[in-house]
Amino acid sequence: MTAHTQAAALAAEYDAGVWSARGVGEAEWRLRQDLAALYRAVHRYGMSDLIYNHITARVPGEDDAILLNPYGLLYTEVSASNLFKIRLNGDILYEPDIGLGLNPAAYVIHTAVHAARHDLQCVLHVHTRASTAVSAMECGLLPLSQQACLFHGRIAYHDFSGPEVLLSQQQRLVQDLGDRHVAILRNHGLLVGGRTIAEAFFHLYWLESACRIQVDAMAAGQLRQADAAAVQSTREAFARVPIRGDREWAAIRREMDRLDPSYRD
Known about the structure:
Helices cover 44% and strands 13% of the residues. By secondary structure, it is of the alpha+beta class. The chain has an 8-stranded mixed sheet, sandwiched between helices. Helix 3 packs across helix 6.
């Protein structure tokens, strides 16, 4: 079955009322597909970590409800139908029948951020090799590349206190994030958000790219930081785009459809 015919079959399934009978509206079903595609893309671009880490999205029209992955699936196994739906207070609204629960860290981190930041639809947490390396550097992210200049002065930092699995850790995490969209979790990894799934992926991809470049440059042993004028010019250029990532995300969705459209199921 081609990507086009599979997408058509899934649309027909929705039209037939299969998902509406389960209390899932069309907007949520589209979001489920978008979020599942995001999981696949994060794996595709080398930012997944076996069954760990988590990505959430706020359900349209339900400010206190989010979608997130079951604890035990590889990102390549996540699909629209096997995402949990929970309230921020922990109530489970939809549980996929696959015998898996939720990662405690996913609940602690994401419910805290979504409760405090109603401007963020999508929140990602990763600990890739490069981002974890930069998170262990006292200097943090340096303006060594165009990618890094995009985030210069816009990154929050959060000190490590062990795995984020305790409710008592939520307040400090939210305070440290403040009104920023990206955070480096010291000795841990990244926390990234966006007003849309497209913008969240944009932030994650380019922040991870900046971290990889910094690790490579430091290994080379000769660093040249961009000057303040170049940093400001870069920030202003990207700031002229109201919500970033739409064109990139459309291309990513096409790629996910070509590679394996099962994320839509």
